[in-house]
Amino acid sequence: MTKKRDWQSDYEQRLLEPEAAMDLIEAGDWVNVNVGTPAAITVLLNARAEALGSLDMRMLGPGLEPLLTSDRDAGEREIEIFIGEPARPSHDTQRATYLPNTFMLGMKAFDSGREEARMPDVNIVVCSAPNEAGYVHFGPTHWMRKAYLKRCRKTIAFVDPNLMPVHGDVWAHVNEFTAFVEGVTAPAVDVEAVRTRIIEEAPPENRDRLLSITNVIVRDRLAPIQDTIAQMDPAVLEKALNLVIDPAAQKIADYLRTLIRDGDTIQVGIGQPSSLMFEAGAFDDAKHLGLHTELGSPGLARLWARGILDNSRKSIHRGKAVAVAWSGCDADDLDIIRDNPAFELYDPSYLLNPALIAQNHQMTSINSAIAVDLIGQVASEDRYGGMMVNGTGGQPDNHMGAALCPTGRAIIVLRATALGGAVSKIVPKHDAGTLITIPRYLADTVITEFGIARLMDKNHRQRAEELIRIAHPDFREELTKEAKALWG
Hints:
alpha/beta; Glutaconate Coenzyme A-transferase; 3 domains; seven-stranded parallel β-sheet; six-stranded mixed β-sheet; 18 helices; 17% strand
């Protein structure tokens, strides 16, 4: 029997109907649900939870709100790394709880055999169809799918034949899985049919903007609105998709441009306003940039296509743009990344290790924040003293890696105000209970639309002066009074 037939036999033996695959989840099992899990799979999981009476789940990232709407008695719901807007109501109402994890330490307790280690029993993933050698990959939303495959007792994989081909450490053999399910993931979106519908049905004044949106909206976000997009307001869509570069974000990008050096290895977060920096031209003047990042942002791959991001001076994975997932990129970027060996994905426990990140040439991290206080403590997760907006994401890992890099710089970007200018995001001190994402001793550089604050090697009074200088002018007098009261 040939090796090819061997794996085909293994695959066929593991191929189950959806309900039979769900029966592999037993009473008392704890289920990990990876980011990017389609809605049809969450329906199956909810049905299994109802059948068992209770089912504990861990989940990463937004988009899994159908699993968060059941009663608390249906089992624990634990959100890892990211919360995001869809899951936020469940966390606010205490239906779900948050795991204060980081990518760099997320698997440490289990891998080192600690008695307090907690690892889910069942891993739910989406993967590609097997190739000729019997290997599947995990697509552009790679994240921690392979990491959990290696550690969970059982992995149930839902096969998506339309999953975008990617490169890197993304492959696993079919005999590493417990079961496969076909026919549950959604069919590929017919973008041309959507464009035709817009041309035929949209109001004339909206057609060009809606057609432009179809060029950049990723297919999984286009799928739910493909039948209604012709009637949608393009301005609302552009705002929801972060396609509008507001004047404050543009000024921030202009300041950031002055700090970017030829040969920098960059990491750019997907928060606001950092995710706008590619399109706002922050990197356009540089040469020989490299990419070592967590996620993507619109314009990332186009920077490679223009020859600016050539990865030629990197110390780690030279010649390759590397990430944990290509989530955050737009459709034009993904068309460039598709099956392109210049772009590679890796497990976050490896790629986001600060000790590895710090080895990069001129490592420069760029991430967003909700607020920064006058001594440089960065809050990126919550508002109003503990009400979580999001989790840590990979910000601590990347910021620390850049801070430890001898030639690196760790940059925080934020608009100076919120709520239409009513609230300053540079604050004297954070509200009681605020979750500090970056402590003051790792603070480096902060940028708003009013300038650059350089905090490294500055004392508390000097930091306050730097940050007040880049606060909105309407708040500088009050911030100065508070600073004198706090720091003299």
